[in-house]
Structure formats: structure tokens, C-alpha cells
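Task card 7
Instruction: Convert sequence to C-alpha cells.
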Amino acid sequence: ANPSFDAGSDPWIWPEHTYAIEDDPDKPEKKMLSFSFTFFDDTPHVDQLVDLKKEIRYRIAAEIFNDGTNLKPCIRVAGMDWSTIRLLSVDQPGAWTRVTDTVTVAEDGPVRVQLFGQGRQYHAPGQSGRSYFRHVSLKALPRNEQAKDATMDFRIGTDGPGDLSVTMVRIIKKPLTPAQ
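Output:
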């Protein structure tokens, strides 16, 4: 994906008057995407098609700043049939939050990487304000991480300044039996 928006809007597609590329105040040499809330019947979003391979694990990541009321900005990876493969959102306003997870797909081909400034299909009363996205990426995991034992996955999440939770997810796979 286009991680820094330094190249401008290409190859992202979005509706007019809700999203803009701006200078990142924390990193003047970089750009970020800003969203300004405007009510639409369908939540406006930024969309990019990215080709993935089914044998590869990918890491989706972004930094999101929720600077609004009742907004739930998120990054979504969706299939071409609009099914959600992964959705990472930010509820807490007032700070940059890094969201990340791994993604695998069932078949080779394009997926949709989407940025929703107010949230995916989310119309809460009293929504207003802005949200920002930077460091958006969808990259193949390095080879040494691709080959690691996939029976455990650690997830680190933060709910606010000073809050940290670590979750271990154990995946139990049926052992392969030799061919008869």
C-alpha cells in the first residue's frame, strides 16, 4: 500500500470534500490523510486495490488519530466480494494509535485496502470532527516470520496512555497424517 502519501493521491480513490492529503505536523517531510466528517448515506472511504498471494502472510498497519466525537476511524482489508478479511479500528480520541495485525487470503488476486474516517457503516448520533491516517502499509512478512511456528500469535494492544495488554492466541491445528 502507499504508506506515507508522499506520492500524493495515486493510487487511492476517494470521494471529494471529505478526505485530503496534508503535511504531517510531527514529520514535516511526510504526508498524512485527513478526514473531515460530513454526513453521507453510505460512509465515505478511501479505497486502494492491492494484489496478494494466498501462500503469503501480510502485516496490515496504520497510525490513526481520532480527533472527533463519536467517530470510529478504521482500516479495513476486504475481498472483492466486499467480505471483511480484517478490520482495525480506533475508538479512543485524542492520541495517535498504531493498529496492526496479520492477513492471509484464500486465493491469489486483489483485495481492497480501505480507510474509513468515521467508521465502517457507523452512523452514531452526534458524529463530528476529524480523523487522520499515516504510515498505512500492507506488506508481506519477512521470510523468517513466514516460516515460524504458527501455533501461537501474540497481540499487543493499548487502550490509552500507560495501558498495555498482551494476548496470546493459541491455534490448534489437526496433525497431518501420512498418505496411505
